[in-house]
What we know:
single chain; alpha/beta; Rossmann fold; 5 helices; 18% strand; globular
Amino acid sequence: MKDKPTVRVLVVDDYENWRVLLKSILEDDGHEVVTASTHSEAKEELRDSTFDVVILDMRLVDDQKYNVEGMKLLKKIKGKAPSTGAIILTGYPDPLHESRALSTYGADAYLSKVPDSIDFDIEAFSELVVTLAQQADNR
């Protein structure tokens, strides 16, 4: 959409399909998008660039049941750039993780990516990214 400002976004997800989908949605909105599939790749991107918004999968290594690498990465990002907007995405929604993501790790939003979930609305997601970028500019 042409009336939305360009936003620099980092998408970190171990599932290629989600990276491609999110990148496509955001680029269609005119944003600049960088993707990473691992914690290490994301750290490398963050070392070289700044982002208005980060979108992080909570579990970056899906075969590790209690993995919360995305939230640990978020804590590092917020430590260096507290105004960065942050969205945690998860295929394993849990009220405790949601509370921790928002209060302890500094996420601005916690969204489910479970199939047929009402939480992931593409239009609302697009608006959320712009809102978070605008809030970051005002912090």
